[in-house]
Design goal:
Layout lengths: L3 H13 L37 H21 L1 H7 L5 H17 L1 H12 L1 H21 L8 H32 L6 H31 L2 E2 L2 E2 L1 H21 L13 H18 L21 H16 L4 H7 L5 H6 L19 H23 L6 H27 L10 E8 L6 E4 L19 E4 L4 E10 L2 E10 L3 E9 L2 E8 L10 E7 L6 E4 L2 E2 L8 E2 L3 E3 L2 E3 L2 E5 L2 E5 L2 E3 L4 E10 L2 E10 L10 H24 L6 H25 L4 H25 L5 H10 L8 H6 L5
Parallel strand pairs: 3-8, 10-19
Antiparallel strand pairs: 1-2, 3-5, 4-6, 6-7, 8-9, 10-13, 10-14, 11-12, 11-16, 15-18, 16-17, 19-20
Helix pairs in contact: 1-7, 1-8, 1-16, 2-7, 2-8, 2-9, 3-4, 4-7, 4-17, 5-6, 5-7, 6-7, 6-9, 8-9, 8-14, 11-19, 12-17, 12-18, 14-16, 15-16, 15-18
Length: 735
């Protein structure tokens, strides 16, 4: 959720900059009025302006921290699949469990800052935890360090510490930046949050483009360099911490003053407990269930909590939007690995597509605010916040509908899903003449297989058990030969037919059962020469291939044109030209002859290359990014407008928790209901449309309120001075 923390903070301060104390981003209580704490000396200014020099350190810190977080997260799903060899469902579940934890832990950071350490020390201590988590995560990605169990443990510990660090400082950094401004410099403070927001999106935009390059284009330990892809974000987090500490002497620091979120929770808990305690007594009913807290809490606090709970109730359907939105880093990235990423001048890494979201957000915000919304207003259409949010949901649902269509097209080049008692087989005829193949009375091949004919597709072979010995009959130039091979269910085979020592022979070899991961190409070699060979391609040494139709294992290579390979034989070294090895394809290359200083080969494409271009993901990114602008920014502004000043941080806590719950929903679906990917996309689309209808109905009956009406009423009554709002929120009144 790129930049939501900054957008929320900007909305908050822009609405309250002239009349309230600063409050932290999620659930911190209001900072006390000036008379309640010691005011430090003024911070030096930037170039003679009213901007404190200290904000430069905070902005740079935020840029580095967001680069660190989003850069690490961009490659996380592919790390689980390629490095741990987990399946897609488990990788998706762990990714979203981590994302959910990142949005649960802000509550911990807020409580630490407000009730114990203050914002500055909380940022320092949790940033150290953050750095340690990154370092452990990076070390865990070094292949030579222990076995897979060690890697998994290190990675999970690292991710837990990262989640605690990034979530813990989330409610503190932006508000701490606002603390640096003097009360009269409201316009400068507002502009600071614009710069703060840009730093977040700049860090996200750059990191989601750069770290996939570090992962895929740089090789270490003979494979993708995940250690470097995690190490660079770790270094940026170290830099973030160093920069923040460097500005220590310039900061204005406010002491902890108690947490309003805890006070609200206590009030709600007391009301419920008191209501249950008196349910059997003959006590007059009260107008609202929160009125049962009046024995211990002030009417002002109870009235404000009532307003907050109304908005929180409206939040209940919102997690479904985030369940779809955050799959850009999981399911959509996995979808991109099965697509053609060649854009002509640049080959995009599948996890680089995530950079489109922060880029589009930066483009859409001014377009919507300065163009679309005013145009809709000119058309006399009342585009209320509820309608904007519902429209955002619809756009996100449409994005997943498009993702489902793209997934169906992708599956056309994928291998069929095998069922029990079924296998796949193809025939590679390397002889000089056509061969008719019959397998145990199963007439799979109606026509003779031509010499060096690339099969269009595999044939389905039906067995009578988990494995079966089958009789293969080959008819060639009027003669018939029989061979017996044992075939296992859910396996893929190639029957190689060739001539050896003047007679026809065959060999049954096992093929890949699925496309190579991450858009790589798979290639193996069959040596049709009468001498052993050693093959080198792209500086990679293949296993020697034995003479007389020996078969090598598969090797995974990057998509590229390979025209300068080497074939070393007993008689010399020859040039090996394989041509294009394309995204997601599997090839069998047969060495047929050596002449003129070059190796003559025949190449069979066993698994079709990815033929759906990655550009087809652009419409779904456009839709979901537009949906985010309408849903997220509008939702934050609306929720803030519907809550009293002292409770806005509580609503921010509720808002972030909807993100956490949304990621938890994806985790549950990925593990509890495994299904075809296109069907899962359709399921999420239907669920979001259904939730959108429910939300629209709830919004229709929602009556907007002005929090200032409540405040004015209280001011006319016995309420003390409005300047000290903290005392009204936290004071316990004995009735």
């Amino acid at each position: 959720m790129v930049g939501d923390e900054a957008r929320g903070e900007m909305n908050t301060f822009q609405r309250n900059e002239s009349k309230e104390s600063l409050f932290t981003f999620i659930s911190t209580g209001d900072d006390p009025p000036k008379g309640d704490f010691h005011v430090q000396k003024k911070s030096p200014k930037l170039c003679g302006s009213n901007y404190p020099l200290s904000i430069a350190f905070i902005v740079v810190n935020e840029f580095c921290e967001r680069f660190s977080y989003y850069g690490m997260r961009a490659v996380l799903t592919l790390y689980f699949i390629s490095f741990f060899h987990w399946d897609e469902n488990l990788s998706t579940a762990v990714y979203h469990a981590f994302s959910a934890l990142c949005y649960f832990t802000p509550v911990i950071g807020a409580i630490m800052a407000d009730s114990w350490l203050g914002k500055y020390k909380t940022i320092i201590y949790l940033s150290i935890v953050y750095v340690v988590g990154h370092l452990i995560k990076s070390v865990g990605a070094i292949p030579s360090l222990g076995n897979q169990a060690v890697h998994v443990v290190l990675s999970m510990v690292g991710l837990f510490l990262i989640a605690l660090g990034t979530g813990g400082i989330k409610p503190c950094v932006s508000a701490f930046g606002g603390d640096q401004f003097e009360e009269e410099h409201t316009s400068e403070r507002s502009k600071f949050f614009s710069v703060f927001y840009l730093s977040i999106n700049a860090g996200s935009l750059i990191s989601t483009f750069v770290t996939p390059v570090l992962r895929g284009d740089v090789k270490c330990f003979g494979e993708d360099c995940y250690a470097l892809a995690f190490g660079v974000p770790a270094a940026l987090m170290v830099l973030a911490l160093v920069v923040f500490i460097a500005g220590s002497g310039l900061y204005r620091k406010t002491p902890p003053q108690g947490n309003v979120l805890l006070e609200v929770c206590k009030c709600i808990g007391f009301a419920i407990k008191n209501r249950l305690k008196n349910r059997s007594r003959q006590i007059p009913k009260r107008d609202h269930w929160l009125d049962w807290a009046s024995e211990q809490y002030s009417k002002q606090l109870i009235a404000e909590v009532k307003m907050v709970t109304r908005v929180l109730f409206l939040f209940l359907p919102l997690p479904m939007f985030w369940a779809l939105f955050d799959q850009q880093g999981s399911r959509w990235t996995l979808q991109a690995t099965k697509m053609n990423a060649d854009f002509g001048i640049y080959v995009l890494q599948p996890d680089q597509m995530q950079f489109l979201n922060p880029l589009l957000i930066l483009v859409f915000i001014p377009i919507f605010d300065l163009g679309l919304y005013p145009l809709i207003s000119m058309c006399k259409f009342n585009f209320t916040p509820i309608r904007k949010m519902a429209t955002g949901m619809i756009l996100a649902g449409m994005a997943f509908g498009l993702a489902a269509i793209v997934e169906v097209k992708i599956n056309e080049t994928d291998m069929p899903q095998l069922v029990p008692k079924e296998s796949l087989i193809q025939v590679l005829n390397l002889a000089k003449n056509p061969v008719q193949v019959t397998i145990q009375d199963q007439n799979l091949f109606q026509q003779p297989v031509e010499a060096f004919q690339n099969p269009d597709e595999y044939s389905h072979l039906i067995l009578n058990g988990e494995q079966q010995s089958l009789r293969f009959i080959l008819q060639h130039q009027g003669s018939s030969l029989a061979f017996n091979y044992t075939v296992k269910e859910k396996s893929v085979y190639s029957l190689i037919v060739f001539e050896a020592e003047g007679s026809l022979s065959s060999r049954l070899i096992t093929d890949l059962e699925a496309k190579p991961e991450n858009g790589l190409a798979a290639v193996r070699f069959i040596n049709g020469l009468s001498q052993d060979v050693n093959l080198t391609i792209d500086s990679k040494q293949f296993t020697p291939v034995q003479r007389n139709y020996g078969v090598s294992g598969y090797s995974l290579v990057e998509r590229d044109t390979y025209d300068n390979g080497k074939c070393i034989t007993e008689t010399g070294e020859f040039t090996l030209d394989l041509g294009l090895l394309d995204f997601g394809a599997s090839y069998t290359v047969v060495i047929t002859n050596v002449s003129g200083g070059a190796v003559q080969t025949w190449k069979s494409e066993d698994i079709k290359a990815n033929n759906v271009h990655m550009a087809w993901q652009l419409p779904q990114y456009l839709l979901i990014s537009a949906g985010e602008v309408m849903f997220s920014i509008t939702g934050l502004a609306f929720s803030y407008s519907q809550s009293p000043a002292s409770m806005k941080s509580v609503l921010q806590a509720g808002w972030l928790l909807t993100v956490a719950v949304g990621n938890t929903l994806v985790l549950v679906v990925a593990q509890a209901a495994p299904m075809a990917q296109w069907a899962e996309f359709v399921l999420f689309t239907v669920l979001l449309f259904a939730v959108c209808i429910i939300f629209s109905i709830m919004g229709y009956f929602y009556v907007s309120v002005d929090p200032e009406d409540l405040e004015e009423k209280e001011e006319k009554r016995e309420t003390p001075s409005r300047g000290n709002m903290i005392s009204l929120v936290t004071q316990k009144t004995k009735l």
